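Appendix B. One record, verbatim.
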Amino acid sequence: MEKRVKHKKIFYRRLTIFIFIILIIILINKIIIVVNDGDYVQAFSSVGEISKDIEKDSYGNVSRYIVYGTHLNIEGDIELKESNKIKNVQVVAKNTSGKEIGIPTTYTYEDEKLSFSTLDKINTGLDLEKLDVKDYYILLKITYSNNKGKYYTLKNDTEYKEPIEYYTLTRNKSNKRINISFITEDNVPYLGLDIRRVSSLPEDVYDVVIDPRSWRK
C-alpha cells in the first residue's frame, strides 16, 4: 500500500513538472508573438561587413526622403572636391549579406557640392515590395575615373526625426513591415531599413485601388 502511494506521489510530481514546463513553453511563445506583432522596436543588426567599404571621414546629407507609392526616394547632397574625377553617382541599398541594389540617380555638381536625387519619374526609386527580410542600408556610391567606387553614408538633414513605417500588402498573410529610420553606429550616421515579417496589419493600413477607367490621356 505504501509503495502504491509513493508511486502516485512520484507520478503526480512528474505530471506537475511536465505541465509546468508546457506552460513555460506556451508563455515564451506568447511573448515572442507579442514582440513580433506589437509596436515597433528598433532592432537593426550591426552594420558589420558593410562598414569596411564606407568612407569614415565624410558623409552625405539627406534633405528629403519620402515613400512615393511603393518606392522610397531620396534627395540630398555631399561636399566633394574631386568633381573632375567623378564617373558615376548612384544611391544604393546594401543588405547585411552584401547584396547591393542600385537605384537610378540623377546628380549635379556646383561649388564643390554634389546634389543627388532618385525622384525623377513616378515609380522610380527603391521598390520596397521586392526587398528581402533583412536589414538594408542606403548609401551613396560614387565611382571615380579609376573605376574605384567609394561608399558614403547618409545623415538626416531634414526636420523629420520620426521613422517611416511601410507595410507590404499580400493575400497570403506574408506581409512585411519596413521601418525606415536614421541610426548611428560608432559615431557614423546611417539611413537603415529594418524589414520583418508580420502576421497581421495595423487597423489603419488600407489597400487603395484606383479604377483605371478614371485616368485621362
